[in-house]
Amino acid sequence: VVVIGHVDSGKSTTTGHLIYKCGGIDKRTIEKFEKEAAELGKGSFKYAWVLDKLKAERERGITIDIALWKFETPKYTITVIDAPGHRDFIKNMITGTSQADCAILIIAAGPAQFEAGISKDGQTREHCLLAFTLGVRQLIVAVNKMDTTKWSEDRFNEICKEVSNFIKKVGYNPKAVIMVPISGWHGDNMLEPSSNMQWYNGWTKETKAGVTKGKTLIEAIDAIEPPVRPSDKPLRLPLQDVYKIGGIGTVPVGRVETGIIKAGMVVTFAPANVTTEVKSVEMHHETLEEGKPGDNVGFNVKNVSVKDIRRGNVASDSKNDPAKEAASFNAQVIILNHPGQISAGYAPVLDCHTAHIACKFAELLEKIDRRTGKKMEDNPKFVKQQDSCIAKLVPSKPMCVESYNEYP
Questions:
Q1: Residue 60 burial (CB < 10 Å; 0-12/13-18/19+)?
Q2: By three-state DSSP, how is residue 14 classified?
Q3: What pLDDT was estimated at residue 63?
Q4: Do the Cβ atoms of 406 and 400 come closer than 8 Å?
Q5: What value, to the nearest 5°, has the Cα angle with vertex 218 and ends 213 and 221?
Q6: Boundaries of CATH 3.40.50.300 in the chain?
Q7: Which of 117, 102, 113, 123 is nearest to 217 (CA)?
Q8: DSSP of 167-208, one letter per residue?
Q9: Where are the CATH 2.40.30.10 domain residues in the chain?
Q10: Which one has a higher pLDDT value, 366 or 83?
């Protein structure tokens, strides 16, 4: 899951609370952090503090999971991708969000906080649109900081109404989206139903798979429908990072999108055109027999220097339809936010899987309806904000990109 929302919505506290209570971190570490937090007078930040400490340790290079922390629910092991809130984090968010099965949108219910997040330039809107556009089709909305509204039912209903309208515009079906009132700090409706919100009758989620009901955020997370993982397709593993680890060597890290990866396989990295043998595969510091779609893995490769491969390269099985670079490709483009018009010749940086590369709009082939995909006009002269089109793009540097039908 990816956790999204405005910068002060309480993402870190809520995420920290889940990881804290449901087992991502061992008790010893927690006790150490609690003691430090208390000494620094940061008691009220207990859960967020746990996350910040983990981040600091990660930045010092102690752990190599991409802000990936785990917690257990009755049904699933959940991996959290922490998507940062500030504007300049959009790039990281794109890389993180494109790996998520479900987005949890945290909204602060406090006076004016909700309005700030959802205003025209608030990040709530942008994050939701990004998540939907990147193919994250399941959404949970946690209305946080209910304690600051005196647990007000009216405030919760007001926010739900507004959020329903707005996620519908983005493309989500409100009936399939769970909205749950919580306090990430006090823990209300996180793991157990809250006694402070007796008025809350719980949530209902309706999808093709059926109807589910519940009261808490953890139940909402358990109601996520597991995506179909294409493990029988050829391997595709976009690299998120490449580490050099003393005594081990070069360790690329990323999420298996299709196929499987295991020790002994000979993989090719595109577009770098480097081929090598996989020595071992691990996840969360444990050796894996094989990495399957959805697994965030690190794997050790023979005789490849950190300089040869990089984030944005794609690993595939050299003997089974290996990934190749594309000289050009046709893309469906949705213009979410852009001043003025876009016409042939425009060359923005494109984020594709984990690569960030400038690509030129060689020609605009057709303008289409954003929701239905139906053609509206052939060879338009230009497109603008809110339009959608099919364009021929030419990457400025070698880039691995493949059709969504074959490799979603």
A1: exposed
A2: helix
A3: 36
A4: no
A5: 75
A6: 2-222
A7: 102
A8: HHHHT--GGG-EEEE--TTT-BTTTB--SS-TT---EEEEET
A9: 237-317, 329-395
A10: 366
pLDDT confidence tier of residue 46, bands split at 50, 70 and 90: low
- The CATH fold assigned to 237-317 is Elongation Factor Tu (Ef-tu); domain 3 (2.40.30)
Contacts of 362 (CB under 8 A, 6+ apart): 328, 344, 391, 392, 393, 394
CA distance 332 to 369: 11
Q: pLDDT at residue 222 above 90?
A: yes
Residue 198: Cβ within 10 Å count: 10
Q: What's the pLDDT score for residue 394? A: 96
Which has more confidence, 285 or 281? Answer: 281
Rounded-to-integer distance, Cα 229 and Cα 292, Å: 8
| Structure-token match 């929302």, residue found | 5
The percentage of the chain sitting over the pLDDT mark of 70, rounded to a whole number, equals: 84
- CA dihedral for 122, 123, 124, 128, sign (positive or negative): positive
Architecture of domain 2-222: 3-Layer(aba) Sandwich (3.40)
Mean pLDDT of the chain: 85
Q: Which helix (H) or strand (E) holds 131?
A: helix 123-133
Q: How far apart are CA 336 and CA 225, in angstroms?
A: 28
CA 40 from chain centre, in angstroms, equals 32
Omega of the bond leading into 111 within 30 degrees of 0 (cis): no
Whether the pLDDT of residue 64 is over 60: the answer is no
* The model scores a pTM over 0.85: no
CATH class entry, domain 329-395? mainly beta
Strands (E), 209-354: 210-214, 237-245, 249-255, 266-270, 274-283, 286-287, 296-301, 314-317, 329-334, 341-342, 349-352
Segment 304-338, tens digit of pLDDT: 999 999 999 999 999 999 999 999 999 988 887 78
Question: If pLDDT is split at 50, 70 and 90, which confidence band does 86 have?
Answer: very low
